Amino acid sequence: MVEAQAAQETKRVLVVDDEEGMRLTLAANLELEGYEVVEARDGAHALELAAQQRFTVVVSDVRMPGLNGVEMFRELKRLQPDLVVVLMTAFALEKLLEEAISEGVYTVIHKPFSMDHLARIVARAVDSPAVLVVDDIPMVAESIVATLRTAGVSAHAVHDGRAAVQRIVERGVDVCVLDLVMPVQDGIATCEQIMELKRPVTVIAMTGHSVPEMVNAIMSKGGYTCLRKPFDARELIHTIARARGDAAA
Asked: Which of 183, 196, 204, 210 is paired with 162 by a 20 to 30 Å CA distance?
């Protein structure tokens, strides 16, 4: 427990890439951002390191000899279940990446990308890798949270807009899945208050009503997208992963 807390305090990042030049560049840039960086030359090496020490975030290439990045991710999660994993790829690999996202990968970024882009993603992943679900119907909110947790996504629920804003102030949250139509304080007002906090939180709206004016309003206030209820788990999980990558672009 003490070792895990120490890793969080020092923000230890594991960089995994079989291309030495890329690995060194990533490591050097993340060190400049203040992280303690450990390098692994491939998936097997990463597993050896993860068995010996705790990490906050792993940044890994997907295509590598031996274990690919997705296979490595699965093994890493067995060693350190709370580990946040960001995957990088220059290839489509649709099925493989879809599987990884469905199993809880934080996000996938596509090469080439800027180092500033990567630094912003890592900062969000280190500081607040959790989803907040806001719905005034407790059964709906809790059901969405249970689905996300089953897929390996850290998630919590509140049941009104005011509680959502308070939660974001008090605890780390990087994505808020927000119902539009709620009593007392609707999703528009809640989104507005979230944006005023100046925190790196992405708002994904959701609604089961035909309210185009509200959808337009929340998008104009910085919302990422709006999902129509009922939506399936895969759609939400993939939207969260995509939003996490896009938010830092």
From this structure: 210
